[in-house]
Amino acid sequence: MRDRDGQRVLRVKGRVLVGPDEVRDELWAVDGRITYERPPGADRAQTVTGWALPGLVDAHCHVGLDRHGPVDAATAEKQALTDREAGTLLIRDAGSPSDTRWIDEREDLPKIIRAGRHIARTRRYIRNYAHEIEPGDLVAYVAQEARRGDGWVKLVGDWIDRDAGDLTACWPRGEVEAAIAEAHRLGARVTAHCFAEEALRDLVEAGIDCIEHATGLTEETIPLFAERGVAIVPTLVNIATFPDLAAGGEAKFPRWSAHMRQLYERRYDTVRAAYDAGIPVYVGTDAGGSLAHGLVAGRSPSW
């Protein structure tokens, strides 16, 4: 039902778990926003009694992307519907080359908070996914994607360096500091893909807001994250693929292969240590690319 101002009003009766120590007997939804105060027009509201399960959040998901790069709108719609059917109603899209703004007009699809398109070093990320640039262009591209996204920018913080034969940091400290400062000036936060240890200290000290995967956290960097409130999204469903990735690259890049296995083997200890230190930890599946959509419900207990 709608009130006299045309707003949709719904009354929900039942035990509402507001927090660990707060329970209420009802709530009101006014044009989709929850309030615990009786709104004007409440006498015209529809009342429902029972229970409701809030939608899940996937904090690292890619709508509009598959293993080959950007996809068409029909495929992106199917991805979003798959996530919705698994219970996801809010997605933080951690980088996509596709324009999915049309999803915002669909009330039947999850809400998406976008990070623009990935920003990576030249030839150091998955083909067709990212803007592949050199450090001198980083600030300009971060500004561009800050304006394109919904308050987030996604960097590729490390990737295999074929000359070194292992994971190495992608960006010099000075350039990444300037880029993060520019994003913050524009009102956006910055997150970065990071598997290894090397890039983490520079990124945190440069002011980054979040790290994706974060398998390289150590006793030295965990306190820095906790002190500065830098969040992590471990994506353990992605990290579960590390042994297969390592096996595929072992002949050509043995150091990288061994490193990936080490990161995999200590993954649970790493996330536990981060959580115990007070680092904010969020659930993310890394759906899109090579991973299926709709996995968040089964993965939430283990991030």
At the first level of CATH, the class of the largest domain is Alpha Beta
Number of helices: 10
Q: Helix and strand succession?
A: EEEEEEEHEEEEHEEEHEHEHEHHHHH
Total domains: 2
Radius of gyration: 21 Å
Q: What share of residues are in beta strands? A: 25-35%
CATH architecture annotation of the largest domain: Alpha-Beta Barrel
Mean pLDDT: 94
Taking pLDDT < 50 over at least 5 consecutive residues as the criterion, the unreliable ranges are none
Please outline the major beta sheet: 4 strands, mixed
GO molecular function: hydrolase activity
Keywords: Hydrolase
Protein name: Amidohydrolase
Domain Amidohydrolase-related: 52-291
Question: What is this entry, summarized?
Answer:
The protein is an alpha/beta fold and 303 residues long. The protein contains 10 helices and 17 strands. The protein has 2 domains: 9-49, no CATH class; 56-302, TIM Barrel (Alpha-Beta Barrel).
